[in-house]
Amino acid sequence: MNIISKFRCISCGREYNIKDMIFRCACGDLLEVIHDFSKLKRKPGEWKRLFEENMDKVAFLRYKDLILPSLPDDKVITLDEGDTPLYKANNRLGKFFGIKRLYFKHEGMNPTLSFKDRGMVAGVSWANYFGVKDVACASTGDTSAAMAAYAAYSEKIRGIVLLPKGKISVEQLSQPISFGTTTLGLETDFDGCMQIVKELTAKHPIYLLNSMNPIRIEGQKAIGIEMIHQLDWEVPDWIVVPVGNAGNISAIGKGIREMYELGIISKKPRLAGVQSSSACPLYNSYTKGWSDLEPVKAEKTVASAIQIGNPVSFRKAVRELRYFNGVVEKADEKEIMDCKAFVERNGIPLCPNSAVAAAGALKLRNKNIIKEGESVVIVLTAHSTKFSHAVINYHTDSTNKYANLPIYIKPTLSEVEKTLNLKQ
Ligand code: F0G
């Protein structure tokens, strides 16, 4: 396998060998992966043909020449992630959102029930390529679950996760524990865990697998590529993404930007990032004409996976949002949970973080920023079942708009019939 990729600093432009185990430029800013696709000498139509021919392969391998062409196939550690459903909204959802061509790209249908598996197939495979023994991440719950699973499956890599104690769901906590990963709960928030894991991996030969590692971002590009492939290469007008640490929106943007530059697609979608009102530094920057990041203290929110006040990939996200004529919206707790409940009533199980994106899409439509006739894909980042407490809390409070309370009755047929208003 020829190496056709390198690291480049997004700020000073300094370049590094892709085989260097580094996560930041000497100047302190983020690195990104640059691929010299010209070396593959492929015309736009040939790319599409290649993807069609590789439909029987797992998504990461099918799109690997666009994602991480310098990684040898035999180093890939995959749990069959990807090929997630792209649901078309039913009529009721179409009406609710006021959008005729509405889709949900359900990344919660991945092996560990979140989009993080897309990044980990790349990140853990790259760690495997390096031959590292230990990988680590800070997490609000989903990154740690994914990293733990891939490390465990590899049989040779030890996972170490740093979690903000008491700030992630029980289901999320259960994942790294069950995968045998060393699970550390720290008396701090995500931003605090992130700081320590950066110091830990700078000091010891431990491979950092947060999204500040640019290899992770490459893996997550697959979400946008696969979505457009599923739409038969018809680029949607909008892609709406929930934002926490801002890695995912950067990844989806980068993948689609590269497809556009290679001529695989000939239209740019618009990007919309949505944050919880409790943690919205990117939104604040957007409303001030993309002003510099002002970190905030992230307040408690039902969207706990995006309770992040100092997003690491802020600058990458702003770059992609500007390139794609993007916007940023925010949603409060009630907007998030009502929207989640309504979407779920239609059979689509989305987590509160994903519901932030859905609520944002609804608001953007109501403000007529998204137009009725435009096509929209909302990226759902994790499965509802990872956050069951949010469901139970919502539905057991009868004051909530779409509450569906369980009914507890005596165990007799007549009680069931009475409750269902059936003739006895
Ligand atoms: N949705 C879910 C379900 C997440 O877990 C995350 C991030 C996001 C959205 C936001 O993505 O950070 O790339 O902007 N979770 C990270 C974690 C921070 O540790 O699992 P982002």
Whole-number radius of gyration?
21 Å
Average pLDDT works out at 97
Q: Approximately what portion of the residues adopt beta-strand conformation?
A: 15-25%
Helix fraction by DSSP (H/I, runs of at least 4) = 25-40%
Number of H/I helices: 16
CATH architecture field of the domain at 86-113 and 217-395: 3-Layer(aba) Sandwich
> Count the strands?
13
Uncertain runs are none
Order of helices and strands: EEEHHHEHEHEHEHEHEHEHEHHEHHEHH
Distance between the termini: 73 Å
CATH topology of the domain at 86-113 and 217-395: Rossmann fold
Structural class per helix/strand content? alpha/beta
Write out the distinct hetero groups bound to the structure: ligand F0G
**Major pleated sheet:** 6 strands, mixed
CATH class of the domain at 86-113 and 217-395: Alpha Beta
Q: Note the overall shape.
A: globular
> What order do the strands of the largest sheet run in, or round the barrel if closed?
4-5-13-10-11-12
